Each structure stands twice: as structure tokens, then as C-alpha cells.
Amino acid sequence: STPPGTRFLLGSGRDPDIGVNSLQNYELTPNPLFSLLVRESPDGTKHAELVLEKILDREKQRNHHLILTAVDGGDPVRSGTVQIEIKVTDANDNPPVFTKEIYKVQLLENLPEGSLAFQVKATDNDEGQNAEITYSFSDIADSARRLFSLDARTGDAKITGPLDYEERKYYEATVEGKDGGGLTAHTKVHIEILDVNDNAPTLSLLPILNPIPEDSVPSTVVAVINVRDRDSGENGEVNCNMGGNLPFRLETSSENTYKLMIARALDREKEVAFHELVLRAMDGGDPARTGTARIRVTVLDANDNAPVFSQAEYTVRVPEDVPVGSTLVTVTATDADEGLYGNVKYS
Q1: Is residue 92 part of a domain?
Q2: DSSP 149
């Protein structure tokens, strides 16, 4: 950082001769950065001074070698030489430079805490303390600061909290690199969180008709099922089904919505009074995740059965002298329905 025009006294040579045979001049090997200035004292002694002509750059050349020659005026001319070694010391004239203007990072959301998230790197052409770089976040949201920590010495950023794609898919931060002399540089870090299949499908039921009369016609809607998976892509693509040979079927209503419908005629007396349905939703992840929901459908009785006598015909032989009020025969009829529908009256 020495300014041009600065002079460095080189001292003077000695020649025991006198007159023209004594020291007359100095010469310097040609160099674009340095020139030679010769001064003469009142007593006639000549002194050499080295003059800096241009700005130095240690990063381009840190050492310069020159030869100073002192010559006399004799015949033949005699000379003496001395070597000048110039060492350019460092000044903090170079800021840090990051290897990238923008670091783009992709992280799986299931990475454990303590994992390396990303690494930034900056270099400085200076040396010593002027080249020692410390890293810090200069602009980062609080939500990201809770999830990432930055090593001031190495530039390594580690995960310090749980990542969740479903909560936030993208973070951005600005990292500052500062050298020992106070010069700084900045770089952007773009962090994209990648989805993993960490959520199972969930099913929510909206009953429409439950219990259901057994004389309900097929295609009657019993319930609406909404299926949701917080993952994305194939991890969030859900297929819903229902197992078993049951008088019900699932029909897609809209995206992630299904209708539970009656598939065929119900018969409470021949089948059962209620059905236990298990609905399963499976996503497209690898491995796939499943969610289940249960619904109990009760079948209400309808008066769809007539009474049936135990015999189609009763034949009774009665003596003519049977007393009045005697029981001649007992007939019985049953009804497969229940409640009022199953109560039999005779006439």
C-alpha cells in the first residue's frame, strides 16, 4: 500500500581514487516499478535513492530483485555492484470472494439434526490475518435461524431443528464472509426442502344416511369420505378401497372425495342387522403408507315380510258334544320383521 513517489535511501558507494577516477554515477537494472534518483551532497558525495513509480501488488509479485551498480570515470571504467532484494508486505487490499454467488441446496425433510446442510467457501488473496475469513448469517428469517447454525470458522451449516416440507418448502439466507482487516463479501443460499413420504393418509367421514332402511334402493348415498395426505407428488396420491363382499361400494366423487353407496338390495332378515365397514386409503409412496377408517352401518327393518302360519291348513275333528268355550285348535304364525312389523294379530 506504499504510495508511488516514495523514496528509499540506498546509501553511497566508496572509491579511494580521486577526480574522475572516483565514483561518478549509479545505475539500476531496468524495472517498471522502480527508478533511481542520484543526489550529490555539497562535498561532492553522490547518494542513490530508490523511487517507487507504480502501485505494488503483492498478490501478483511479492519479491523484486534489483542490481545497483556504482561506476567511476576512469579509463577503463571500474564498477561495483550490490543486490537489492525488495519484499512486499501484505496490505488488506483484497476482499473475500465466495466460490459461488448463489448456493442452491436441496435437503430431504427427514434429515436428522446435526446433519450437514450446506457449506459456503470464500477465499482471500491476502495473507496472514488479512486472509482469515469468518462466516456469519447477515440476513436470515427467524424460522430459518432456528433450523440452521453456521460455523464461523469453516462455513459449515448444520441442521439444528426438524425440517418439515408440509410446513415450509423453501428458505433463503445471506452469508457474510469477513477477513481480518474488516473487508466483507456476501453470498445467497437458497434451500429447497424435498418431500419424503412421512405422512399417512387420513380419512374423514360425513354420514348422510345411517341407519338406513333395508328397502333403500341401490345407489343410495350412505356417507361421503374425504381422504387427505399432506405429502406431495406420488407420496400424496391416494387410492381408497373397501374390502369384503358387502352390499356397498365406493365411487369417486371428486379429487380425494368418495361416496359410499348401496350396491345391491339389502335384506336385514337374511343377512345382518348392521355392517362393519373398513375403509383403507393407500398413497403412492415407496414404501406406501396407509390410513384406515371404520364405519358401522345399521340396517333398519322394513315391513317386507308377511306373517307365515306354521301350517298351510289345519284339520280339526270336534265331537258334537264338546262344551262351549273349549279350545278346538291353536294356530301360530310368525313374522321375520321386528318390532311392530313383527307383531302378529289374528282374526
Answers
A1: no
A2: E
